[in-house]
Recover the amino acids of this structure.
């Protein structure tokens, strides 16, 4: 039995921050993660973070991961990778499995920072190789440097779908389109603008009807939906793609918390079932905390602050650790304020509402926010300066922070829209490269009598050369005119974002926001689905046990009213994924067919081990313990 | 090979180049990358045959949760290749069905 004061389960942003904070207060901390490298999703985030300096704003996720890993080391946190926490028992014992070891740990405090699992989207042939979760695509291309396919259809226009579409292009992979079932882009518009100006269409009110392929994905049929999410006949379009990337939401990974007996509640705004927790993220079990996506789906910036809160409170609750009351109060006030700022504005509403529901409250009144202008600034008359095309109230202020002349003002409330003082801006370009949304541009209207120079942030390869002629593109990715590259600037200060300047006729100055070196060979080849329709009844819902939609519907029609009843008859959820893929889908089918809310259907009982284990591993422990 | 050679932001630190086999075909990959990545780089996406419908399957989650990538690695079935690092001379096979119990050696 291994004794630790604080066990952190999950080495993503929340878990690492919890470990660092607690260890910094003197606690003996062990962090376990099932991957072979710490960092969670951060290790594949090539984009810069939003927020303010305290939230690592303007820093790329990959670099934040390295900073946190260093901090773990500096604070003496013990790290165990390739180690899955398989159960939390009533007596407080946690079992952890590595490839060749079965470890029993007795911690005084635990935090479940287990993250989330990607939602599946069922459609005919959706189980073919080439249908990947967005996180999987990111891992493959950004961690291993392998292309997931040649041409991708992205499903979902939330932040993940938009960011991964952009990253696919950074890796030199073609993105045919982004389809989004609802009528609006759910992610930040600045992320949407980045992909739109590259010429990737975002098809709102569209979804995948089916994919086809012999041994792997060869194409997809996309249809338009009406406001009730029903297919509009005659709208089918075929796309020749070899990869479907699903970015249709996340579900908190909370089976360990179920297993530990924590009180759980379904909160749609938080992504599913989460452990009921207080504002210090303590669950109904005194020794267990929760943080990050496991406590409700949010951005990684919030996860890091939640981790800090947990680390501080876990340390404070240990009898051996003494933290001065004033010190504690001051730190907590600071952390709460950080969280409040990150949850400000329209994008924080889900988290604000979700967390309030969880606490049994209604969300508090928010101070009003000045809404950004709908129209972009028209071309100005003289000089050279920055223009800001930040379209929403995103909690973010690196542009204000980095400007050496104080020309950009966001103000104390980081959800405010940044404003530029034309008199102070000297067009140094620093803000262009630090804006996580790449939403700042620089225009020199005095370039010549007839021409203007537009400088834009550029994160693609190859870089153009000075003097080169390129296609200048507008915000929708349409070619506007030819342009001459007047400058290409790269600098360590720009952190891998370059600034490319284009010279265009004055009349195009308002429109040009991107360029391409060559017309890319259109990856679209003629695609023909071998069948116009596939029977959706054949769609595989439980991929482990090969159970189709039709089989599940038949069992519900015959009277099954719970996930467990369906499971007993069909083995759904009994395969090696333990229901992680199908449970959510089946409960939704039950809800739809029986006309009851999703939360009225109990999920299956979570019992350890939470991942299939090699029996040899267990038998070895048995032998060793007898010895 | 489906490798990303140039990236505007990332530098890939790849391990030693090693050989492995997939269903008897010799392939190369980098030590330490996941088996799933090495296979995908070699153009292999069909990792197993599902247990009842015999559908081809590849990986889905790449975090070792969905088990869609279960393959036979050095004779051990149900190995989640999306999280297991590649080593030289590994013998990787497409898995058919649930996999068979090995004889104790």
């Amino acid at each position: 039995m291994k004794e630790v004061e604080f066990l952190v389960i999950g080495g993503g942003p929340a878990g690492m921050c919890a470990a660092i904070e607690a260890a910094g207060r003197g606690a003996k901390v062990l962090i376990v993660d099932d991957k072979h490298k710490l960092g969670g999703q951060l290790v594949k985030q090539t984009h810069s973070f939003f927020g303010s300096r305290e939230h690592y704003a303007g820093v790329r996720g990959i670099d934040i991961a390295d900073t946190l890993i260093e901090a773990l080391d500096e604070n003496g946190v013990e790290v165990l990778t390739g180690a899955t926490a398989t159960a939390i028992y009533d007596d407080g014992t946690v079992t952890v499995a590595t490839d060749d070891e079965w470890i029993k740990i007795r911690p005084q405090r635990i935090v479940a920072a287990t993250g989330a699992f990607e939602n599946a989207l069922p459609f005919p042939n959706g189980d073919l190789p080439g249908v990947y979760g967005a996180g999987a695509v990111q891992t493959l291309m950004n961690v291993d440097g392998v292309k997931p396919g040649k041409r991708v259809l992205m499903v979902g226009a939330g932040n993940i779908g938009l960011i991964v579409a952009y990253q696919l292009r950074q890796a030199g992979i073609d993105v045919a389109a982004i389809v989004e079932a609802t009528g609006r882009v759910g992610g930040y518009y600045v992320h949407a603008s980045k992909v739109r100006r590259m010429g990737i269409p975002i098809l709102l009110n569209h979804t995948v009807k089916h994919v086809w392929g012999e041994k792997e994905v060869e194409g997809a049929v996309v249809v338009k939906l009406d406001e009730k999410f029903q297919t509009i006949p005659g709208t089918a379009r075929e796309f020749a793609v070899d990869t479907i990337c699903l970015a249709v939401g996340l579900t908190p990974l909370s089976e360990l918390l179920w297993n530990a007996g924590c009180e759980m509640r379904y909160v749609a705004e938080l992504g599913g079932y989460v452990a009921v927790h207080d504002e210090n993220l303590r669950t109904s079990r005194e020794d267990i905390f929760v943080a990050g996506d496991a406590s409700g789906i949010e951005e990684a910036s919030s996860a890091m602050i939640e981790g800090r809160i947990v680390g501080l409170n876990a340390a404070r609750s240990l009898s051996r650790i003494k933290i001065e009351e004033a010190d504690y109060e001051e730190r907590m006030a600071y952390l709460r304020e950080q969280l409040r700022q990150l949850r400000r504005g329209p994008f924080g509403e889900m988290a604000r509402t979700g967390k309030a529901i969880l606490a049994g409250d209604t969300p508090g009144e928010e101070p009003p926010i000045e809404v950004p202008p709908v129209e972009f600034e028209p071309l100005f008359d003289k000089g050279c300066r920055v223009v800001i095309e930040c379209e929403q109230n995103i909690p973010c202020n690196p542009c204000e922070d980095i400007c050496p002349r104080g020309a950009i003002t966001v103000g104390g409330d980081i959800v405010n829209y940044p404003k530029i003082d034309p008199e102070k801006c000297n067009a140094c370009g620093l803000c262009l490269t630090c804006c996580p949304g790449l939403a700042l541009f620089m225009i020199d209207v005095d370039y010549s009598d007839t021409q203007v120079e537009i400088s834009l942030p550029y994160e693609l390869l190859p870089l153009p050369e000075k003097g080169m002629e390129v296609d200048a593109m507008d915000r929708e990715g349409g070619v506007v005119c030819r342009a001459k590259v007047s400058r290409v600037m790269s600098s360590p200060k720009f952190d891998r974002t370059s600034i490319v300047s284009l010279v265009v006729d004055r009349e195009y100055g308002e429109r040009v926001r991107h360029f391409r070196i060559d017309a890319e060979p259109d990856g679209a080849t003629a695609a023909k689905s071998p069948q116009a329709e596939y029977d959706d009844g054949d769609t595989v819902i439980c991929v482990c046990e090969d159970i189709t939609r039709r089989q599940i519907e038949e069992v519900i029609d015959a009277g099954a009213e719970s996930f467990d009843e369906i499971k007993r008859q069909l083995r759904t959820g009994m395969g090696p994924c333990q229901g992680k893929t199908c449970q959510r889908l089946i409960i939704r089918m039950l809800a739809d067919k029986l006309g009851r809310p999703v939360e009225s259907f109990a999920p299956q009982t979570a019992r350890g081990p939470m991942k299939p284990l090699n029996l040899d591993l267990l038998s070895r422990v048995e032998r060793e313990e007898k010895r | 090979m489906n490798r990303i050679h140039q990236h505007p932001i990332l530098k890939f630190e790849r391990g030693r180049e090693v050989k492995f086999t997939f269903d008897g075909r010799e392939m190369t990959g980098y030590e330490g990358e996941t088996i799933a990545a090495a296979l995908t780089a070699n153009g292999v996406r069909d990792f197993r045959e599902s247990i009842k419908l015999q559908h081809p399957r590849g990986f889905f989650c790449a975090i070792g949760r969905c088990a869609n990538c279960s393959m036979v690695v050095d004779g051990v079935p149900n190995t989640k290749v999306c999280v297991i690092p590649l080593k030289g001379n590994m013998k990787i096979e497409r898995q058919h069905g649930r996999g068979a119990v090995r004889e104790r050696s």
Notes: The first strand of chain A starts at residue 2 and ends at 9. Chain A has three domains: 2-117+251-358, 384-516, 535-627. Chain A touches chain B through 50 residues (CB under 8 Å). Chain A has a mean pLDDT of 94.
